[in-house]
Automatic annotation (TrEMBL):
Protein name: Iron ABC transporter substrate-binding protein
InterPro entries assigned to the protein according to its UniProt record, in alphabetical order: Ferric-bd
Key words of the record: Signal
Superkingdom of the organism of origin: Bacteria
PANTHER family: IRON-UTILIZATION PERIPLASMIC PROTEIN, THIAMINE-BINDING PERIPLASMIC PROTEIN-RELATED
Claim: Ligase is one of the keywords in the record: no
Family that this chain belongs to: Belongs to the bacterial solute-binding protein 1 family.
Pfam families xref list: SBP_bac_6
Keyword flag Cell cycle: no
Species whose genome carries this gene: Thalassospira povalilytica
Length: 338
């Protein structure tokens, strides 16, 4: 269900939203990120700059909407999650390159498009969740270990074609080459306890219920489960394992933003992009969803710190985006979802 909202004002429809672009002190955001995640940021931005942020929230379809609106689109910025989805906007031709010293200075090179079409805002790791009762600490330490026949029938994952897994599989192609990645994916498939299904939290629930001993999931779900009375026992049944600490580090994915081509409020849009990559916004953004800041030096949330530190893979996310179609082909080739 789509929500249309004006930060600091009333809920409004598409006509009102389009009319809102008249003021020079506004900026228009299309967001696939949930309302509770971004409203605190926009309210702080308005407080500091006087620039209103008009937002349309949706679960999907915003890139298609921008394409349909064409030159009449009121959108200035697109906010979304996962590098594959971000790249889809670029490939659709709706984004505009930004060359900005402030933004580039805040965001490390591997977390932004080399041509400036997208920039990371937060990071999340693709972790391994391991049963406290059935998997000894240190028994699994890498993504490569997931293909070890010792784990036959003991691993749960969501669909292999979900963007979170596609990004991980693409990273394996980048590191090992397509043939070795295929062998690894076949090994992982052979170790599945059940047909891929559900979301990341459902895999941890399955560990609690004894369906499997290991699962793959994003780091921030650990915090979300601990905050939920029903799901807390699931999280408490597992250890969160940061893979590949002896070599390349844990595979990372992002939420991110792009400037929309020919947006009506470009100056304010770039100003908002600068703000979102700065210290204040990075601190807020990371805390509300248990994610990791992208700007170096920004403190992690206290509860996130309690999970431990880790080495992050610094493979350029542009490589992940480029290899994602190959990863999807591998999923089909090995019949991962069957």
């Amino acid at each position: 269900m789509e929500i249309r909202k004006l930060i600091g004002g009333a809920v409004f429809g598409a006509t009102t939203f389009a009319a809102a672009i008249a003021s020079a002190q506004e900026v228009n955001v299309y967001s696939l990120r949930q309302e509770f995640l971004v409203e605190p940021l926009f309210e702080k931005f308005t407080e500091q700059t006087g620039v209103k942020v008009n937002v349309i929230f949706a679960e999907k379809g915003l890139v298609e909407r921008i394409k349909q609106e064409g030159a009449n689109s009121p959108a200035d910025i697109l906010m979304t999650v996962d590098i594959s989805r971000i790249q889809q906007a670029v490939d659709a031709g709706v984004t505009e390159a930004v060359s900005n010293d402030v933004i580039n200075g805040n965001i490390p090179a591997h977390l932004r498009d080399p041509e400036g079409h997208w920039f990371a805002l937060t990071q999340r790791g693709r972790a391994i969740y391991a049963s406290k009762d059935r998997v000894a600490e240190g028994e699994i330490t890498s993504y490569e270990d997931l293909a070890d026949p010792k784990w036959e029938g003991k691993i749960c994952t969501r669909s292999g074609t979900h963007v979170y897994n596609v990004a991980l599989f693409a990273s394996m192609i980048a590191v090992h080459g397509e043939e070795k990645a295929k062998e690894w994916l076949e090994g992982l498939k052979n170790n599945l306890a059940r047909k891929p299904q559900g979301n990341d939290r459902a895999q941890v629930k399955a560990i609690k219920e004894g369906v499997c001993d290991l699962a793959i999931g994003n780091t921030y779900y650990y915090g979300k489960m601990l905050d939920n009375d029903e799901q807390r026992p699931w999280a408490e049944s597992v250890n969160i394992v940061f893979p590949n600490q002896a070599d390349r580090g844990m595979s990372m994915n992002i939420s991110g933003m792009s400037l929309i081509k020919d947006g009506p409020n470009r100056e304010n849009a770039v100003k908002l992009m600068e703000f979102l990559t700065g210290d204040v916004a990075q601190q807020i953004y990371a805390e509300v969803n248990y994610e990791y800041p992208v700007k170096p030096g920004v403190e992690w949330a206290e509860n996130v710190k309690s999970w431990g530190t880790f080495k992050a893979d610094e493979l350029p996310l542009s490589d992940i985006a480029r290899l994602s179609p190959d990863a999807i082909k591998l999923v089909d080739t090995v019949g991962y979802n069957e």
